């Protein structure tokens, strides 16, 4: 009996029936696992993937003008960009402007054209107002003349170039603008004549994010080290202080910085009272205030991964290094520091990426000098109503972060990251 | 005896340590070590043995007293200047370095030339029979291999003194025995001095020249393994090292080193007096289970007393008998399994025998 069992038991292969059963079992486990994550997947699809995809699309797609003046654009196709388009186009434009004025949409067209030709807005609006009073038959007969008479700009190629450009449904204009570039009517790409804003702003954003990351590292590393090596009771207590900012509203914390930094704020009152400075320092609404407030807010993101990694580093490493003759500093650099790299890179990456896209704090304490790219994106979404540009700027920001991450992975290795 | 080897290469003089400024963890530690000696600090956890080692390495400060190495006080010397090798319980191999880099570390710190480092690393890799493992990381090695690397790393820079803090604690039994042999082999080959901390008495007995048994910050006895086992100085050592039976009793007569004790379980026992008091004082008789014999004819034994068999435990190479005296004291007897183990009645008292030189009388506290 025992011998029989030994013989059958020695063959590790499954029979066909057993294999089928095992496969079914595996499928069942996979299905259950899938069902468990389905709600999250759906949520992510609607709340995350779809908006980002829309954003990416909107950066290329600009159907507004094409929907407003389809007739004009259609007749403008053969025009080569020199001189004035022929009368049929002008007449159609006059008719379109009248129609838009009647349905109160001429403002939209004015806004869109103004982006390509500053100053076009008022011309479009006033012309539309004038043409609105004419009848349709009158415009069909002498619309071209009336248009040219309404404003001298209509006799210049610039406005028609702007119309043609704005009429493209798929355009790279927004992306080019986001990189301070523009396309001449001939199709060449050149640096934007009307101002260089965005590249400078991206650079500034990256620089500030870097400074904030370094500040967090300088402040967070020693603290994390202390926490990781303190007796559990002290460490738990101090950990609450580290986490405290998470339990306070972001607005409250940022506003507190306003109270501290403003001209008549706590710090300035103290400095003037102590006669350290005679005139109050200009601290609020500067890069400085943004960096200080954001370092404060993002510090826990640096401390937590560092702490968890340091907690796992055996104190005997340092002792071993010293027993082998390494001075404490040398032991730290050659043994401790390399072992904290996973936490360090995780913390630095977290803080850097969060601060690159940070909005509220720079908006509240940064003023104009401390603005970052996200504030401009918000501006284009809320005030200038230029969603296309906002989308392009946002997409570029995403690309930038992904590139940095890729570089990081290339040179440091993302597998190194340990978040907790 | 190892005593004649003591030439004071390493000396602890009245070393005391307190962590909380109130109680002493190490109370007046005095010890001298000969060059090349293998000394083990043995004791239960919290007995102060690791503290002594850490003070020796320089990771803990000495509250009062002196440590002298080769005649020079090193009590206040920084750890990295002491030139003492150390092996840690968890190996403490640097996970971000390869095995070869780990071994090269102390040499690099000492700014040795590249060629010398390479040569010495290879020599030590061969020495621990891991010649082809230089490029691996510690994570790719088994526990025993890691332990060997840790050992080589502590030796590679040629320290004359090596400290080992429970280095085999994390290994399984079989590997532990292999490593004990390995450490002994290297010790004999290279001739360094060792202070070895462990709570495993088997390890201590097999490897050491001398063993210092610690309890509550005090060295209870410091002697060669056989002396420690066969002539324990007090009840703690007798209990801590090996297995022992303890029979409470009262001293009835005393003649020099020998006493006669009336045990409360019934009967009188002659024993060697270790630290017992005068006639009339309470004492404990200790006798090892393998030094007790169950009644057989033709042998000359000094002591005999009656006991009732309670349980018989078959262990394999020996059989363990559990007896009970009249006062409820349990007595264990170990009998070698040579098919001559007696069949005993569980209802009638058997007679237990022992020689008087195997019985020790300790003061009962």
TrEMBL record, chain A:
Its main location: membrane. The chain crosses the membrane at residues 31-53, 208-228, 240-260, 288-308, 344-366, 387-408. Keywords: Cell membrane, Membrane, Transmembrane, Transmembrane helix, Transport. It is a multi-pass membrane protein. InterPro entries: MetI-like (IPR000515), MetI-like_sf (IPR035906). GO terms for biological process: transmembrane transport. Belongs to the binding-protein-dependent transport system permease family. CysTW subfamily. It is found in: Cell membrane. This is ABC transporter permease. Pfam families: BPD_transp_1 (PF00528). Residues 202-408 form the ABC transmembrane type-1 domain. It comes from Sedimenticola thiotaurini. One of its GO terms (cellular component) is plasma membrane.
UniProtKB/TrEMBL annotation, chain B:
Residues 10-241 form the ABC transporter domain. GO terms for molecular function: ABC-type polyamine transporter activity; ATP binding; ATP hydrolysis activity. The keyword rRNA-binding does not apply. InterPro entries: AAA+_ATPase, ABC_SmlMolc_Importer, ABC_transporter-like_ATP-bd, ABC_transporter-like_CS, Mo/tungstate-bd_C_term_dom, P-loop_NTPase, PotA-like, Transp-assoc_OB_typ2. Its EC number is 7.6.2.11. It holds the Pfam family ABC_tran. Transmembrane segments: none annotated. The keyword Lipid metabolism does not apply. It catalyses: ATP + H2O + polyamine-[polyamine-binding protein]Side 1 = ADP + phosphate + polyamineSide 2 + [polyamine-binding protein]Side 1. It is an enzyme of class 7 (translocase). Keywords: ATP-binding, Cell membrane, Membrane, Nucleotide-binding, Translocase, Transport. SMART domains: AAA. One of its GO terms (cellular component) is ATP-binding cassette (ABC) transporter complex. Part of the ABC transporter complex PotABCD involved in spermidine/putrescine import. Responsible for energy coupling to the transport system. The complex is composed of two ATP-binding proteins (PotA), two transmembrane proteins (PotB and PotC) and a solute-binding protein (PotD). Belongs to the ABC transporter superfamily. Spermidine/putrescine importer (TC 3.A.1.11.1) family. This is Spermidine/putrescine import ATP-binding protein PotA. It comes from Sedimenticola thiotaurini. The gene is potA.
């Amino acid at each position: 009996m025992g011998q029989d069992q030994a013989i059958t038991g020695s063959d590790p292969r499954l029979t066909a029936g057993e294999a089928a059963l095992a496969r079914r079992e595996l499928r069942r486990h996979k299905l259950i696992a899938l069902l468990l994550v389905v709600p999250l997947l759906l949520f992510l699809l609607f709340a995350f993937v779809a908006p980002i995809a829309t954003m990416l699309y909107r950066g290329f797609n600009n159907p507004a003008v094409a929907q407003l003046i389809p007739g004009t654009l259609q007749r403008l196709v053969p025009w080569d960009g020199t001189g004035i388009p022929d009368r049929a186009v002008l007449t159609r434009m006059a008719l379109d402007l009248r129609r838009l004025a009647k349905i109160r949409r001429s403002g939209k067209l004015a806004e869109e054209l103004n982006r390509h030709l500053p100053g076009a807005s008022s011309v479009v609006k006033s012309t539309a107002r004038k043409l609105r009073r004419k009848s349709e038959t009158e415009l069909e007969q002498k619309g071209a003349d009336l248009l040219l008479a309404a404003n001298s700009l209509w006799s210049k190629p610039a406005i028609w170039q702007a119309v043609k450009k704005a009429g493209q449904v798929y355009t790279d204009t927004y992306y080019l603008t986001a990189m301070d570039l523009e396309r001449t009517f001939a199709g060449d790409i050149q640096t934007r004549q009307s101002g260089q804003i965005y590249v400078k702003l991206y650079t500034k954003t990256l620089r500030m994010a870097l400074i904030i990351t370094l500040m967090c590292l300088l402040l967070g590393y020693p603290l994390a080290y202390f926490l990781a090596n303190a007796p559990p009771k002290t460490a738990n207590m101090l950990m609450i202080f580290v986490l405290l900012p998470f339990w306070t509203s972001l607005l409250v914390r940022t506003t507190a910085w306003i109270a501290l930094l403003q001209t008549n704020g706590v710090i300035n009152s103290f400095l003037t009272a102590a006669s350290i400075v005679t005139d109050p320092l200009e601290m609020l609404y500067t890069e400085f205030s943004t960096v200080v407030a954001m370092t404060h807010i993002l510090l826990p993101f640096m401390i937590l991964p560092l702490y968890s990694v340091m907690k796992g580093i055996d104190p005997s490493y340092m002792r071993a290094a010293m027993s082998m003759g390494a001075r404490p500093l040398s032991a730290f650099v050659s043994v401790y520091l390399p072992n904290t790299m996973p936490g360090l890179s995780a913390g630095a990456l977290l803080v850097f990426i969060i601060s690159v896209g940070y909005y509220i704090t720079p908006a509240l304490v940064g003023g104009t000098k401390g603005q970052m790219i996200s504030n401009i994106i918000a501006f284009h979404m809320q005030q200038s109503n230029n969603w296309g540009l906002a989308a392009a700027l946002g997409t570029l920001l995403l690309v930038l972060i992904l590139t940095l991450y890729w570089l990081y992975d290339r040179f440091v290795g993302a597998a190194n990251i340990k978040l907790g | 005896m190892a005593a004649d080897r003591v030439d004071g290469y390493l000396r602890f003089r009245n070393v005391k340590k307190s962590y909380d400024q109130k109680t002493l963890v190490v109370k007046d530690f005095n010890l001298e070590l000969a060059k090349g000696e293998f000394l083990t600090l043995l004791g239960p956890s919290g007995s102060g043995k690791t503290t002594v080692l850490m003070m020796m390495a320089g990771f803990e400060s000495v509250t009062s007293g002196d440590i002298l190495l080769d005649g020079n006080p090193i009590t206040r010397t920084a750890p990295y200047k002491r030139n003492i090798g150390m092996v840690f319980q968890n190996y403490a191999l640097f996970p971000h370095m390869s095995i070869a880099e780990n071994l090269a570390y102390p040499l690099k710190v000492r700014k040795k030339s590249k060629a010398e480092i390479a040569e010495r690393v290879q020599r030590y890799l061969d020495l621990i029979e891991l010649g082809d493992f230089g490029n691996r990381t510690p994570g790719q090695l088994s526990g025993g291999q890691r332990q060997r690397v840790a050992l080589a790393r502590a030796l590679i820079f040629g320290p004359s003194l090596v400290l080992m803090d429970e280095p085999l604690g994390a290994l399984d039994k079989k590997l532990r025995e292999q490593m004990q042999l390995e450490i002994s082999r290297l010790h004999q080959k290279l001739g360094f001095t060792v202070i070895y901390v462990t709570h495993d008495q088997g390890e201590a007995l097999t490897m050491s020249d001398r063993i210092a048994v610690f309890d509550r910050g005090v060295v209870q006895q410091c002697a060669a393994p056989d002396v420690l086992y066969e002539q324990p100085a007090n009840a703690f050592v007798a209990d801590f090292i090996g297995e022992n039976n303890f029979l409470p009793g009262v001293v009835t007569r005393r003649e020099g080193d020998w006493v006669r004790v009336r045990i409360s379980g019934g009967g009188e026992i002659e024993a060697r007096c270790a630290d017992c008091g005068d006639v009339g004082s309470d004492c404990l008789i200790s006798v090892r289970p393998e030094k007790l014999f169950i009644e057989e004819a033709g042998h000359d034994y000094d002591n005999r007393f009656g006991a009732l068999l309670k349980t018989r435990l078959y262990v394999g190479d020996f059989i363990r008998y559990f007896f009970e005296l009249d006062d409820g004291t349990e007595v264990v007897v170990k009998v070698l399994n040579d098919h001559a183990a007696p069949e005993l009645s569980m209802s009638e008292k058997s007679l237990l025998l022992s020689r008087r030189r195997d019985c020790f009388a300790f003061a009962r506290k």
